[in-house]
Amino acid sequence: MKKMLIVETKLHLREWPFLLFTIGLPVGLLVVLGLSIPAMTVREGTGERAVDTQMPSLMTLLALLTLACSVVPAVLAAYREQGVLRRMSTTPVHPSRLLAVQLLINLAVGALSTTVLIVVGSLVFGAAAPRNWAGFILVFLLGTAALLAMGLVIAALAPSAKAAPGIGSVVMFPLMFLGGMWLPRELMPDALGVVSDFSVAGPFAQALKDTWAGQPPELMHLAVVAGGLMLFGGLAVRFFRWE
């Protein structure tokens, strides 16, 4: 497991443009939107600013969705086409171990991206770090694992390396919408709100926002995200292909 983690980390570092994009896009959007839209930097009636809770939680979701729906499928599908996975299949490595290593590496990248978001938000806007750190870490780990497991399913089903990012985009943009990226969840019609509540992205984004504001995550949100992790994790192992 340790050797596989080292090898996979080296292979991932070769794909540095993907990693740079995963970190740079959310941070850039946070800064641009925060500086260009007055509502993002003027305190609202609740005393909270959008750049304090709403924007960083959504940018965190964007970073993780980019990893899950673009980076993970593209990398694994490329491994399959290049014969990397076929060579691994001749060893005693079980697919679940390879997928677990992928989760760990991309979890680390997601944590790095989120850390940069927190630091930049603090330096540029004076935004506070998550106030409920214990809840935030729990939500972050659970939600990131669920989204990455979804990405592993996309990678398993994608017919080629070229098709993988396209399939990921088809999944990613609806999840961004359901997470509240363009329309805040509290403004969604009732029917759409129900869909958002069970989309994994919606409960994850809301739980991040709650913990950022210092509140505990709702048990229902945690249950939905945990259910997504079990579902997509099982599907990833079930449909995994070496070649």
Automatic annotation (TrEMBL):
Its main location: membrane. It comes from the Bacteria. It is found in: Cell membrane; Membrane. The chain crosses the membrane at residues 16-37, 57-79, 99-127, 133-157, 164-183, 219-240. InterPro entries: ABC-2_transporter (IPR052902), ABC2_TM (IPR013525), ABC2_TM_bact-type (IPR047817), ABC_2_transport (IPR000412). The keyword Cell membrane applies. The keyword Lipoprotein does not apply. Pfam families: ABC2_membrane. It is a multi-pass membrane protein. Keywords: Antibiotic resistance, Cell membrane, Membrane, Transmembrane, Transmembrane helix, Transport. Residues 17-243 form the ABC transmembrane type-2 domain. Belongs to the ABC-2 integral membrane protein family. This is Transport permease protein. It comes from Nonomuraea rosea.
